From TrEMBL:
The protein's name in its UniProt record: Uncharacterized protein
Organism field: Chytriomyces confervae
Transmembrane segments: 24-45
Superkingdom field: Eukaryota
Keywords in alphabetical order: Membrane, Transmembrane, Transmembrane helix
Length: 103
């Protein structure tokens, strides 16, 4: 090359796409990857929170169920003590088994 020869540039070197296309596409790619990663993390954490809340609700409902069972057993025990052991009048007084009480 001689010094009198002009330096050749790419014909589209001054266009916006040629100058900023690669950095913009890299930015869009990395921001999309970051968004997908953050959304996955949020979904995972939200699922874990829902699972913990559901387990806590199940424990609370089981505790409440145990309480109401104890209350009903106490009521049945008191009723049996009042009636002398017969809890249900029809079945206990007639001497019939539970499957033949309708006959």
């Amino acid at each position: 090359m001689s010094t009198s020869e002009p330096v050749r540039h790419h014909p589209h070197a001054s266009t916006f796409t040629y100058r900023y296309g690669k950095p913009l596409s890299a930015f869009v790619l990395y921001s999309s990857l970051a968004l997908v990663g953050l959304q996955f993390a949020w979904t995972t954490l939200d699922f874990e929170e829902q699972r913990i809340n559901t387990r806590a609700r199940i424990v609370a409902l089981n505790t409440q169920l145990s309480h109401w069972r104890a209350v009903e057993e106490e009521k049945l025990r008191l009723r049996a003590a009042e009636t002398g052991g017969a809890v249900r009048g029809d079945e206990a007084s007639s001497g019939k088994s539970w499957w033949a009480w309708k006959s």
